[in-house]
């Protein structure tokens, strides 16, 4: 994956499957097929299989070292050549995002096999550091489209403002950047940010699962009197499932949906010449400014950058719809065609009806998920009706009837009526 002077090659997308947390009676719905393939089994439609192809796929038996060595380690040397690197962890809450990025604390015996991408990457960067290289770290949280400094020592956090400098570079006014010289200094800084994020989560339910956490390691090198600057951006995205509160849900959906629009492919395969032509057309744009997350990541996703999206899924059959959503997101994010530095205009002739088409797609995605869910509910209700129609053989049933998922009876009836002409009897 290399960048040229004009166009950066596609974003890499990888899938990681989380093993079962507890025993599941329903079985699994997703599996790895080879080094790049993923197979999704639809439990509601005759075990129908859908195959996805990514740049890499990691099964439930993959180790932390497998993910880091195969997908991350080879990118880090590019930092010292002035290339920005962005790594994003995507998926629902408890799908394994934070474990991949952060891992677990090193045990008392010194085992580091469970360390995540963040500590491994920082260690490798420090090992390559020379005397003319300086490193600094910042750590922020984006919650409800607002930015907070996780390294802020004040008892009450202050909302920070995203700005542009005279060269149109994005910066966060007031965000601390703390220098690091060794892994011990980094660990101390990271613990502060991690503690502040956990503190925020305890104050507002599980806020940490509904916010984006972004750790940035800035690398600056002095070469022949000139300063070469680049950064590694590591993002633990908010859970992609529906949030509890309307405001949170709207903001999470907006940021993740905008991220998908920024990362998604153009309509079909487009040659470099057509891309360059589109870039030069007036009025074209990539929608970075449509959410706080993508605005902050603008300089780290396109242009002189390399990006890796690791999508996390659960193999448990009860998470089928979430897994389908995640795989669709990853599949749509496989191509990022973006010019270097200033040429940030794109998608003109291919996005002339952008607003309407994107809104339609957004609603279609949600409707298709609802339809899958509704069909499952319909089958459960019909099965229960059939069971009730049978003559009662025993006062104590040997097999309890199925209970539709807890949507509430009115919502179940509404879904049932939407997909079936004969509603269940009272």
TrEMBL record:
Highest taxon, organism lineage: Eukaryota
Annotated GO biological process: microtubule-based movement; mitotic spindle organization; spindle elongation
Molecular function via GO: ATP binding; microtubule binding; microtubule motor activity
Ranges of Low complexity composition bias in the record: 394-406
Matching Pfam families: Kinesin (PF00225)
Region (Disordered): 387-413
Cellular component per GO, a single term: microtubule
Residues binding ATP, per UniProt: 91-98
Keywords: ATP-binding, Microtubule, Motor protein, Nucleotide-binding, Transport
Record domain Kinesin motor: where: 10-336
Similarity field: Belongs to the TRAFAC class myosin-kinesin ATPase superfamily. Kinesin family.
PANTHER family attached to this UniProt entry: CHROMOSOME-ASSOCIATED KINESIN KIF4A-RELATED, KINESIN-LIKE PROTEIN
UniProt name for this protein: Kinesin-like protein
Organism: Planoprotostelium fungivorum
């Amino acid at each position: 994956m290399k960048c040229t002077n004009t166009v950066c090659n596609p974003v890499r997308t990888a899938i990681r499957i989380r093993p079962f947390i507890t025993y599941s009676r329903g079985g699994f719905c997703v599996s790895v097929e080879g080094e790049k393939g993923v197979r999704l089994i639809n439990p509601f439609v005759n075990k129908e299989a859908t195959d996805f192809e990514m740049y890499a796929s990691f099964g439930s038996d993959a180790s932390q070292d497998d993910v880091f060595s195969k997908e991350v380690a080879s990118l880090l040397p590019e930092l010292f050549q002035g290339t920005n690197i962005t790594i994003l962890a995507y998926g629902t809450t408890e799908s394994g995002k934070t474990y991949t990025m952060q891992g677990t604390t090193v045990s008392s015996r010194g085992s580091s096999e469970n360390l995540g991408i963040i500590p491994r990457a920082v260690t490798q960067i420090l090992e390559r550091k020379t005397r003319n290289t300086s490193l600094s770290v910042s750590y922020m949280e984006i919650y409800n489209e607002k930015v907070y400094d996780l390294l802020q020592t004040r008892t009450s956090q202050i909302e920070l403002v995203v700005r542009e400098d005279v060269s149109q570079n994005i910066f966060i006014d007031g965000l601390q950047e703390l220098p690091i010289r060794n892994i011990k200094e980094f660990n101390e800084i990271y613990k502060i940010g991690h503690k502040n994020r956990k503190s925020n989560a305890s104050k507002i339910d599980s806020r940490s699962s509904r916010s984006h956490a972004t750790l940035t390691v800035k690398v600056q090198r002095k070469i022949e009197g000139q300063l070469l600057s680049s950064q590694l951006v590591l993002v633990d995205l908010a859970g992609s499932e529906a949030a509890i509160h309307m405001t949170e849900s709207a903001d999470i959906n907006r940021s993740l949906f905008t991220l998908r629009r920024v990362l998604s492919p153009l309509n079909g395969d487009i040659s470099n010449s057509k891309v360059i032509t589109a870039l030069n057309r007036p009025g074209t744009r990539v929608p970075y400014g449509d959410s706080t997350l993508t605005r902050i990541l603008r300089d780290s996703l396109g242009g002189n950058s390399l990006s890796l999206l690791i999508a996390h899924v659960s193999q448990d059959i009860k998470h089928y719809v979430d897994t389908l959503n995640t795989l669709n997101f990853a599949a749509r994010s496989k191509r990022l065609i973006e010019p270097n530095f200033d040429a940030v205009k794109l998608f003109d002739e291919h996005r002339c009806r952008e607003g309407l088409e994107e809104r339609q797609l957004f609603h279609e995605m949600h409707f298709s998920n609802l339809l899958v869910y509704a069909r499952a509910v319909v089958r459960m209700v019909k099965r229960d009706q059939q069971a009730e129609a049978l003559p009662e053989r025993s006062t104590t049933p040997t097999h309890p009837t199925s209970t539709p998922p807890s949507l509430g009876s009115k919502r179940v009836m509404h879904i049932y009526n939407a997909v079936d002409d004969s509603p269940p009897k009272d």
